[in-house]
Amino acid sequence: MAFTYKKDAQDKHGPVEFDALIKIDKERRYLIDSKKSGEYVFRVLMPWSIEGIFAPSFKVHYLNKKPYLCPTMIGANCDFCNTHREIRSDPQYEADTRDVRPSYRYLMNVGDVREPTSIAKVLEVGPQIYGPIKTAQDTGFYGDILDGTNGHNVYLKRTVQGKVADQILVDPKPSKLANPEWENQLLDLCGLIPEVDEEIIKSLYASHPWKVYEPNPTHRVVSAPVKTQPTVGLPPQVPTTTLVQQPAATETLSNNEDQVADLMARLKAKQAGK
Hints:
Blueprint: H1 7-11, E1 38-44, E2 57-63, E3 66-69, H2 79-87, H3 94-100, E4 102-112, E5 121-125, H4 127-139, E6 154-161, E7 163-170, H5 189-192, H6 198-206, H7 240-244, H8 249-252, H9 257-272
Antiparallel strand pairs: 1-4, 1-6, 2-3, 2-4, 4-5, 6-7
C-alpha cells in the first residue's frame, strides 16, 4: 500500500543543515536561532554515562563555512592550529587568523520546557552559553541544577543586532522535570561526535585560500600536538581568554528573580497568543 508524501514528516529525518557536523534528526535537536533575537527556556539534563559529564566537547575549524573536526582532538598534528599560533599575534594576518582559528563546541541533553510533551533533545553551543551553565553547576550556588527532582531551568535571551549577544539566567527556584520521561531519553552525546579525518584537514590546508599569509611548504614551524584527554568528547580546558569574555559569575548567579519572572511572563504571553 502506498501513501501520500508528507514533507513535514520527512524533514524530521534529515540533518538541520546540509553541512551540519552532528548528524541527528531535526526532532532531536534543540535549535537556538543565530539570525534573530529570541527567548528560550530549557532544562539541562543529567549525565548519561558513568563518566559523569553532561556536556562533551569537540574542537572544529570552520572552513568554507563548514565545520571540520580538528586533528588535535586525537593528539595528531593540525597545520591550521600551527599556523594560527604562528600568525595570530601579527595584525597584518588578522583576516587569516580569523578564518582558521579553532572553536570549541559542546553538546547537552536538554528538555524543552515550553514543549513538555516533546522528546529530549540535543543542544549544541559554544563557550558563551556553556561557560555560565557550567559555572552555575560547579559553584553549587543553586545546588545541582541537573537534578531531575530539584534542578533548575535555564533561561536564554538572545539579541541579534549585527552581533549576537546572549544573556543566561538560572531560575533560582528548583523544580521537577516538566517531563519525567526525558531522563529515559538521554542520548550518548560522545557517540554523536564523528571520527576525526586527518587527511581531509591536510587536503583543505593545501588548498586553503589565504588572504595575506603565504605558507612556505619547505619551512614551516610545526608545534608539537596538543595533549588532550584520551577519550574524544571529554571537556577540555576551555581557553581562559574565551571565558573571560563571558558574563561574570556574579551576574549569572545573582538574585535574578525579577528577570526570570519578567521573562516567564513574556513567554506565557506569547504562548497565550498562539
